[in-house]
Design a protein that fits this description.
alpha/beta; Dihydrodipicolinate Reductase, domain 2; about 375 residues; five-stranded mixed sheet; seven-stranded parallel sheet; Rossmann fold; about 25% strand
Length: about 375
Amino acid sequence: MSDKKPVIVYGASGYTGRLICEYLRELNVPFIAAGRDGARVKAVVEKIPGIESADYEIVEVEHTLPALTALLKGAAVVCNTVGPFIKFGTPVVQACLATGCHYMDTTGEQDWMLEAEQEFGAKFAAKGLLLSPCIAQMYTTGEIAANIALETPGLDTLDILVLWKGFPTYASTQTIFTILKAKWYYLEDNKYVEWPSNAKFEVVVPGQHETAIALPWGGTSHPVWFKKDPRVASCKVQGGVFARAVMESVIATQKMFDDNIRPLPPAQQEEELGKIAASIQAAMPPRENPRLNTSIDSVYASGPLGRAHCVIHGNSNYKQTGLLQAYAAYSLLQAPPRRAGFASACQAFGHRELLGVLKNFGLVMEPVVTVHK
């Protein structure tokens, strides 16, 4: 029997990776905190509250298939936070297949999801392994709300809004630049339909009089997860942060890309976006304050003769992400996923179970559900 610690947090020096380690400690799960700069990983992890009581080790690893395969050998689960995933995800997934390791990440990149499903979904299913990108607050908590709304039979259309107070981390900002190049899709009558790149919305926010700006946010994961759900025919998602200045900046960046960079050849697009991304300094944001860093996941589900609305009010969206990742790893150490292969967190672990975990740690309220039949 392998004496290797069962969970690998790859990218542990980042904001989200640190939180995953923190919640693994709270769940008493031994883990390896891994990254490309071992000294940086050590410096970050050693500042986690109570880390002296955790069973962990630090490992420096190159981002190559041979090195990642050696790292994952003997482990059971990897929580991957090294993005953008369309650039860096493939070797990690390949290493999981080679070593029999479950794969999860925090991506918001719809193009990476579609690629992972097509290239690796069946291979993971054949080995009984889970391939689950997009386990994060901006995707999983909204998916929980959608599944609660769909507990009312006869509803086939989802209108999803995800908003949170705070500012994107360095890694999240890099992802925003990456998804500018991709095509974004929503689901209409069980077919993917491309969003216009300049789509934006003024949305009504549950629980307040002020409206907010929302964007398709790269299409998000929800249309992909519900594509093969027989209950759902159509799914549209809008999302973003409450701060208007941040959203206006994202809109301006999208317009700049469409006007000045999109006409360029792909290699030159990458170079120009790299220059912009490099101009943003990598700094660890302050720890979230639950009084200030709140989140709202609102889902309208509708059908010909029925309506349901589910709202989940929460706080500390990055903490929600860290906990969801850590709990998913903890669960996989106890039992196989409910669905192997390419599957969402709700499909793999159950939406009510995930809701219970978030409530238990004080990160979300009891959902507010309104049903009209």
